[in-house]
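Quick one: structure tokens for this chain, please?
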Amino acid sequence: MSEQKYDFVVFGASGFTGQFVVEEIARIADEEAGLTWAVAGRSMERLQKILEKASKATGKDLESVPVIVADTGCDESILEMTKQAKIVLNCVGPYRFHGERVVKACIEGGASHLDISGEPQYLERMQLMYNNKAKEAGVYIIGTCGFDSIPAEMGVVFAQKKFQGEINSIEAYLDFEAKEGLVGNVTTLESAVYGFAHANELKSLRRSLYPEPLPKPSFKLPKRGAVHKNEVVNKYCVPFMGSDKSVVNRTQRYNYEHNKQRPIQFDPYIACSGILQLIGMMVFGIIFAVLSKFSFGQSLLIKYPEIFTFGAFKKSGPTKKQIENTSFSMTLVCKGWSTKLEDPAEQHTDKPEVVSVTKVFGPEPGYVTTPICMVQCGLVLLKEKSKMPKGGGVLTPGSAFADTSLIDRLQNHNIKFQEVKE
């Protein structure tokens, strides 16, 4: 085994998302003096082909990038990989099946671990089981470092810093522009299928993770229907079933317990560009919910994604043209007070009277924004530990990176944060 500790080891580099992470590191390596990195996965041949492909895509000479053979089916190979890394960028999903072994090996091997999971059960279970062990080892385990859930997490951080007073609630509206159609990879779908199928695990998991409830807000977020029209984005909106709510809520819990900050209520939605898209999304949601409840239905969704998702997910993933012609925006509508109470458990007696709007926007979410986010999170972890919670642990991006340069770094790499003046 090599004695060298590489700054980054990209695990799952030959996977659909992993190859884009490799390309992103190749692009930014010149900006970061002395950055060392390696790729890892099951097949030496496939990894070498990915490096050749990334070299052609970026114009960078990647012939000397080290290759490490490691397989989630072999604990020893995973451990040997982690011993060679300062930070493992884990792109192997679904994390429900493959993530824990890598987290465990990272803690044993002394490497920090970043992933791009959007799976609340996996994320919260890792916090419950490995937070203390990660602290003992002095390593950071940080999930959702991609499109799930950096725009939401850092959008909330940005909004908090800009807000004059104290925020009570944020409603986030996610919108996509996809001129050639929005297409996801089947691994993303598989993660969603199993997450939805086992959603009932979350209640008992959260009781164990958080035995003490947060203080109840005196002014609760309004309960929206299955469909509502928002006046700020001027579109019909439906609840967003991704990991953003779970992750932001974990950050709010951390901020309340460790930083004495008032918890912000957070609800995310997807904005629909028209009635046809709204109907299509609702029909897809019903089919997905029904099929995900049964093993046979789960199998159909994963084996025949193009049929049962109306082409929204494909085994081949999106084409280059589809990636280039897709972008996202997230509008965060913040409501609160102009005054700030010292005690976060004390309640305001007057209704929230201040409204502000923050917007986050960037390129295609899955294969452009996600690699940018993951790599920049890795660089911040590598270079700014003094600005992060001391001692490591299992953290959310919002709790880990709130006081770092991550937002500025993202701004410099085509993911923009903006306070909107009404």
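The CA atoms of residues 193 and 288 lie 8 Å apart.
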